[in-house]
Structure formats: structure tokens, C-alpha cells
């Protein structure tokens, strides 16, 4: 298979996806098959071809640098899994409090 | 025909002629919804009281002599990937099971501005990833022509709702074929507009350079009407174009004189079901009868388009779905964990298998050491695919072929094999990569009574001609008048 179990675990970590042992094994098989299929692009000579990220020739679209009303805090917080006052309550970024 | 079998255009005329009220129309479709939903399972949510309230408001406006929008009193179902203010929007995913958007998508604002009656949220493949609606975390929608079969995906609910006469119009989205394929297998009209024609503001993003919102309808006139309503510039989507929206219905019944139809040989090769091919070739003959010329064209990079799509789309999805981390909205794990653990558990619990697969593929092809070989390579192939269409469309007005390689397959038939499922998108993905408009019109049935779709692909922002060409075929046939017995 094109992907090893370690590869799959590494990608899952990058993707912030916690998968069970069974799921990781199944992923390995399925992802390997998909990646084998898409790898056929290597057959094509694309020397000198510029990548096309966007179908339209879009350029930076700006607006005047003037403040405009934005979403009120209550609306922004209405789906919060854990609302703390006017904040989103989230797990601490660092395990322990930092001392200066 | 009963009210529920009528087109939106007919329902508008009835109201204008005083023969039916918006309230009566809403009641008729609500009855159809109640009766057929146990079999079709097309909707993730629907608020009967709210529908009646909206219909009543349209009748009151009419009675007061106030000007009415172009969709007045017409029920329009909305794929559950579009934000509707105050109305749960789930993307058919557990991770957004209880998400209530604080704003309307632009397309939804446009429906309201045209006095449409918003008729429920429809089921879909989770986060628009799929071709059968079997990846929904809610339920599997059924094809109204045969409930053992899939309605297509990812906009299966929107397609089934219209084909099954639960609503005369619906909105879907198309990233790799998710409007055109369900339209084809459900026997209705579906359009993917040119990229940038319809604002994506409020569309929960799957792949930002591929996604487009578009209409489902019984016929071309209705599809043109809904497209008129939702297309147009919006400052809040910097990828949508500032170009005026034509009155698509104005010249709709004018045939295109000297029509040249490009027929790509790559769309008629291995894997195409014989009955589908036969129906499509018969449609091409009908065009010849009407004076069109068939032009043999080639899209030489066709066979690589699917591979390129299944690199680019998952890559963009892996980035777009990073926001679902349990912090600001959506599912957060109840398990004790640090910050990164909370992300990983929330996403592991909240996302379905196909979504996880695509995030993994996307993450892999963008990761250090692989980005050039996969992602950048795929973007180069994308340019070649676009050039194929530019070259072909320089020699013809539209490109035509089958929308799908087969008619609707059975529920469960491909759900164990992700790659087999991906292969059913073979005729539709290249259009999204190129950004050009595409539509599917019904062109027949298999011997077992399953609908077949004819795909039309056009030049960028040439929807007006595309619709006229579609109408040429439709006016000589009656597929669009058929309704399934549900």
C-alpha cells in the first residue's frame, strides 16, 4: 500500500482528527487506493504549464477602509459550546499557567 | 394535473389570475410533503407554521396591491448547506446538528426579496461530499422514480423534493456535479452556473474555487426563473463577478440558428451504459432535426480531470473544514482533553467517514514533501482541462453528452467503495475545474423506468444561450411533463 500506518497516523494528527484503531486501518486501505488512482497524473507532462488555482482571473477585491457594522456579540456567541460572559470558553492553550 | 405537479411559472399565473392563493399552494405542497416524506426522506427540517405564515403574507401583499417579487407565493426548498437565519443548518452532519446561523446566505436573501415561500431545508451528502446522499448523517433520501435507488448527490434532497412534487423549485449546490447528477437521475432540470455568477456568501464552503449554487426545477423556464432570482453581484463574496444578470427567460423560446454542438468523443467511451448512450444520441438527432450541426470535438485531458478533482477538492475542503474545531460553534467533545485533543476528538466524533477521508486526502496532498507532486500538479492539470474546453468551445456553441454514465444505482450499491462512487462523477467534474456553466435536462428513461439526463456545457457567462439551447430540445419532447407515482 502506498500509505503506511505511520503515514496515516501522521496525517490524522495534522488534520486534527482522532480516529480509532479500526478506522485508522480502514483509512490506510481506502486512502492508499484513492492516492494510487490520483497518482496517474504523474503520466502527464506539465512542463511549462502554470497552476490554475481559480477558474476566474480574480484580482484583489477591496472595499474602502471604513468601519461598518459587524455581527453583534450575542449573535456571534449564540452557538458557542461554552459561553463565558462575552467570550467563547475554550480549553487552555498551555497545560500549565506560564510564569513571567 | 394537481397543484403539486405544476411548475412555478404555472403557479405564478394561477395566483395572478386569482385562481389560487399562496396559502392554497402552500397547503397543497405541505400535504404532499406529509404524505410522501416517509418514502422520500428529502428534508432535514421543515416548519409548517412558518411556511403558512409566509404564504399568508404574500397573499396579504397581493390583496393590498403591493408589488410582488418574481417568485411570489412559490415554495422553494433549500439545501441544508445554505445558511438560513434562525433556522437550523446542519450540512447533514452531526458536527452541525444544532447550529443555527445568525444570518441568511445571499441566495436566501434573494429568495425572500422575491417573495418566495422558503419550504424547508433539504438533505444532502454530509458537507456536500458524495454522489448519492448516502453520506448524510441524518437519513438516506430516496429517488422518487424508484425508492430502492439513490436520488444522486450531494444535492439529493433538493432533487428528490422537486422530482417528487414536494416543492416546485429548490436550490442545490454543485462542486463536482452535485446539482447536475441528481437532476439527471431524478429526471428534472438542474443548472450549475458559471463560477462567480451566484454569490457564495452564506454557503458553507466545501471547495471554494469549485462550489456554485444553482436551481432545480421541472423545466427549463422554471430553472431560468430561479437563476434570475439568485444570480448577481454581492460585495460580501469577493469571488463573485460584478456583471449584470440577463433576463434569462426573455429570449428563452428563440431557437439558436446555426447551432453547433460539440460532441466530445471522450464522453462516449468505456463505462457509459448502453441505454444512457442511446437516449443521449437520440437527443442529438433531435437537435439535428432542428437544424443544428454536430461537431466532433476532443477534450484530451478528460481522463485526468477526475484525478485532478479528487486532489483539488479535498485539498480545499481540508482547509475549509478546519474551522469545525468545537470552539465557536458545532459539536464539542464531552471527553476531557487538552486543546489539541479537544479539536481532534470533536472532529473525530462529529465528522462522518467520507468527510474524514477527504480531509485526510486533502491534508496529505498539501503536506510538506507531497504538495508539489500532488496539489500543484493537479492545478497544472486543471489549467489543461480548462484549455480543452476553451479550445472546444471556440469551434461550437455548446458541448453535449451524457450527464452520468449510468441511471440511478441502488442504495448501498457503491457505498462500500469510495473510488467506485467517485467514478460516477466522470462527466461532471471537469466543468467545475474549468469554471464553465453546465446543465442537465431529462432526455428519456431506461427500460426499467429510471430517468436519463443530457448534459449541456457552455462558455463562461453564456447561460442565456445554454438555456435557449436546452429549451430547443425540451420544446420538442415531453420528458419534463412526466411525474413519478410516489
Annotate the secondary structure layout.
The complex is a heterodimer of chains A (100) and B (486).
Chain A: H1 5-14, H2 21-38, H3 73-77, E1 83-84, E2 87-88
Antiparallel strand pairs in A: 1-2
Chain B: H1 8-16, H2 22-40, E1 43-45, H3 48-63, E2 75-79, H4 106-113, E3 117-122, H5 156-163, E4 169-174, H6 180-186, E5 189-192, E6 212-217, H7 220-230, E7 260-264, H8 274-289, E8 293-297, H9 302-320, H10 339-350, H11 353-366, H12 372-393, E9 398-402, H13 418-423, H14 429-434, E10 438-445, E11 451-457, H15 463-475
Parallel strand pairs in B: 2-3, 2-4, 7-8, 7-9
Antiparallel strand pairs in B: 1-3, 4-6, 5-6, 5-10, 9-11, 10-11
What does this structure look like?
The complex is a heterodimer of chains A (100) and B (486). Chain A has helices spanning 5-14, 21-38, 73-77; strands at 83-84, 87-88. With 100 residues, chain A is mainly α. Chain A has a domain at 5-43: Histone, subunit A. In chain A, strands 1-2 form a two-stranded antiparallel ribbon. The longest helix of chain A is centred in the first third of the chain and has 18 residues, at 21-38. With 486 residues, chain B is α/β, with parallel strands linked by helices. Chain B has a domain at 3-257 and 463-481: Amidase signature (AS) enzymes (Alpha-Beta Complex), CATH 3.90.1300.10. Chain B is built from 15 helices and eleven strands. Chain B is globular, with a radius of gyration of 21 Å. The chains are: A mainly alpha (100), B alpha/beta (486).
Amino acid at each position: 500500500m502506498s500509505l503506511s500506518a505511520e503515514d496515516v497516523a501522521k496525517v490524522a494528527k495534522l488534520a486534527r482528527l482522532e480516529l480509532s484503531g479500526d478506522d485508522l486501518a480502514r483509512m490506510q486501505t481506502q486512502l492508499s487506493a484513492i492516492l494510487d488512482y490520483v497518482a496517474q497524473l504523474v503520466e502527464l507532462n506539465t512542463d511549462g504549464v502554470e497552476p490554475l488555482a481559480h477558474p476566474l482571473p480574480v484580482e484583489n477585491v477591496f472595499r474602502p477602509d471604513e468601519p461598518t457594522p459587524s455581527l453583534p456579540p450575542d449573535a456571534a456567541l449564540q452557538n458557542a459550546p461554552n459561553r463565558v460572559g462575552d467570550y467563547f470558553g475554550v480549553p487552555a492553550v498551555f497545560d500549565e499557567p506560564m510564569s513571567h | 394535473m394537481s397543484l403539486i405537479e405544476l411548475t412555478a411559472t404555472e403557479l405564478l399565473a394561477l395566483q395572478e389570475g386569482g385562481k389560487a392563493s399562496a396559502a392554497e399552494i402552500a397547503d397543497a405542497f405541505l400535504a404532499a410533503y406529509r404524505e410522501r416524506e416517509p418514502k422520500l426522506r428529502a428534508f432535514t427540517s421543515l416548519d409548517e407554521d412558518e411556511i403558512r405564515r409566509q404564504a399568508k403574507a404574500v397573499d396579504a401583499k397581493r390583496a393590498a396591491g403591493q408589488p410582488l417579487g418574481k417568485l411570489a407565493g412559490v415554495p422553494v426548498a433549500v439545501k441544508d448547506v445554505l445558511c438560513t437565519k434562525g433556522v437550523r443548518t446542519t450540512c447533514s452532519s452531526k458536527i452541525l446538528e444544532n447550529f443555527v446561523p445568525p444570518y441568511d446566505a445571499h441566495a436566501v436573501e434573494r429568495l425572500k426579496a422575491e417573495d418566495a415561500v422558503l419550504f424547508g431545508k433539504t438533505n444532502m451528502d454530509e458537507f456536500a461530499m458524495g454522489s448519492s446522499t448516502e453520506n448524510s448523517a441524518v437519513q438516506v433520501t430516496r429517488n422518487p422514480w424508484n425508492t430502492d435507488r439513490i436520488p444522486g448527490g450531494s444535492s439529493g434532497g433538493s432533487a428528490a423534493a422537486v422530482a417528487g412534487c414536494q416543492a416546485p423549485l429548490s436550490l442545490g449546490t454543485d462542486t463536482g456535479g452535485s446539482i447536475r447528477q441528481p437532476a439527471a437521475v431524478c429526471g428534472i432540470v438542474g443548472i450549475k452556473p458559471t463560477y462567480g455568477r451566484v454569490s457564495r456568501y452564506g454557503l458553507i464552503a466545501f471547495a471554494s474555487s469549485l462550489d456554485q449554487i444553482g436551481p432545480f426545477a421541472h423545466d427549463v423556464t422554471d430553472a431560468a426563473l430561479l437563476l434570475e432570482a439568485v444570480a448577481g453581484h454581492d460585495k460580501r463574496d469577493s469571488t463573485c463577478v460584478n456583471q449584470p444578470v440577463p433576463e434569462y427567460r426573455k429570449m428563452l423560446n428563440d431557437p439558436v440558428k446555426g447551432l453547433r454542438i460539440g460532441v466530445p468523443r471522450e464522453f462516449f467511451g468505456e463505462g457509459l451504459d448502453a441505454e444512457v448512450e442511446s437516449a443521449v444520441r437520440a437527443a442529438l438527432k433531435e437537435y439535428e432535426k432542428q437544424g443544428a450541426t454536430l461537431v466532433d470535438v476532443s477534450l484530451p485531458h478528460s481522463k485526468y480531470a477526475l484525478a485532478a478533482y479528487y486532489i483539488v477538492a479535498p485539498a480545499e475542503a481540508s482547509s475549509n473544514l478546519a474551522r469545525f474545531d468545537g470552539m465557536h460553534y458545532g459539536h464539542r467533545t464531552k471527553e476531557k482533553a487538552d486543546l489539541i485533543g479537544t479539536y481532534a476528538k470533536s472532529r473525530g466524533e462529529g465528522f462522518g467517514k467520507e468527510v474524514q477521508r477527504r480531509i485526510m486526502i486533502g491534508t496529505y496532498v498539501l503536506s510538506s514533501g507531497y504538495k508539489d507532486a500532488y496539489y500543484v500538479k493537479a492545478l497544472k492539470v486543471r489549467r489543461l482541462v480548462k484549455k480543452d474546453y476553451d479550445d472546444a468551445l471556440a469551434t461550437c456553441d455548446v458541448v453535449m453528452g451524457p450527464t452520468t454514465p449510468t441511471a440511478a444505482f441502488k442504495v448501498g450499491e457503491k457505498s462500500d467503495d469510495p473510488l467506485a462512487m467517485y467514478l460516477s462523477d466522470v462527466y461532471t467534474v471537469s466543468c467545475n475545474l474549468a469554471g464553465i456553466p453546465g446543465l442537465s435536462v431529462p432526455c428519456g428513461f431506461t427500460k426499467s423506468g429510471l430517468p436519463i439526463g443530457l448534459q449541456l456545457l457552455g462558455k463562461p457567462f453564456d447561460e442565456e444561450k445554454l438555456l435557449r439551447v436546452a429549451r430547443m430540445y425540451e420544446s420538442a419532447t415531453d420528458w419534463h411533463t412526466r411525474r413519478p407515482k410516489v
